[in-house]
Amino acid sequence: MAIEQSADKMSLTRSIVRYDREAFSEIEDSIVTEFPLTIYVNGEEFATMVCTPTHFEEMVIGFLASEGVILFYKEIASLEIDESKGFAYVQLANGKTMQPAQYSKRVIGSCCGKSRQFYFQSDVKTTKTAVSAVTLSASQCIQLMKNMQEESTLFKGTGGVHNASIGTPEELIVSRTDIGRHNALDKLYGYCLQNQIPVRDKVLVFSGRLSSEVLTKAAKIGVGVVLSKSAPTNLAIELAEDLNITAVGFIRGQSFNVYSHPERIYP
């Protein structure tokens, strides 16, 4: 079967066999690209992330911040991406180092959950209780989700990625896409750190399931409202309650469910 890489490297075209209406046919299908990126911090191997090959710098910055390696973008002295080999080299500023007992080499899969063995190690110091006073209307919730979905050409072409955006109640500021939901969120976090965008008054819009990991990521970023097209888990709802985050799920058509802190959503 023929395989052709797309110009943007985020997808490729492949000949496949499709069954439909009691018949087989050969068609061209668009397949999302999966790419391993190994991160070195101060010369030491830190993590290998399986991701969509776009916005590498943002993802690395957001990931290091979410893991507590850095608090601010200025704590990175240099960041180099060797895309041809799949390496990211980070040098921390001012002699900053990592504690060996706290961090170790790891592999981060494109799925959530148990592939991230270190999940609870740094959450205590990096997860923040939301202090957001932002409010938005029901129609704004629906419109933000619609806008994010309309922007995602990669999802329309492949159906194989997660979409995430940060915005105000009125509009989306930035959107990112990745095969890993945590990668998409890290890209947003990195973008905000690089561009010094305050997030306390912002809204996180997300296409995937609201898992506890997603809620934890949202809390690390610092937003107070998370909008999702999909369902939440029970632990995600409990975390949202504890962390003062408004969790909204099943935004489809003209309806949605508010699972925690509904005071931020008005008719």
UniProtKB/TrEMBL annotation:
MF terms (GO), sorted A to Z: sulfur carrier activity; sulfurtransferase activity
Pfam families for the chain: FdhD-NarQ
A Gene Ontology term for the protein's cellular component: cytoplasm
Compartments, record wording: Cytoplasm
GO biological process: one example: Mo-molybdopterin cofactor biosynthetic process
Coiled coil: none
Organism per entry: Sinobaca qinghaiensis
Family label: Belongs to the FdhD family.
Keywords assigned by UniProt, alphabetized: Cytoplasm, Molybdenum cofactor biosynthesis
Keyword Cytoplasm among record annotations: yes
InterPro entries recorded: Cytidine_deaminase-like, FdhD
Matches recorded under HAMAP family: FdhD
The keyword Transferase is assigned to this record: no
Descriptive protein name: Sulfur carrier protein FdhD
Active site: C112
Major localization listed first in the record, in broad terms: cytoplasm
Function: Required for formate dehydrogenase (FDH) activity. Acts as a sulfur carrier protein that transfers sulfur from IscS to the molybdenum cofactor prior to its insertion into FDH.
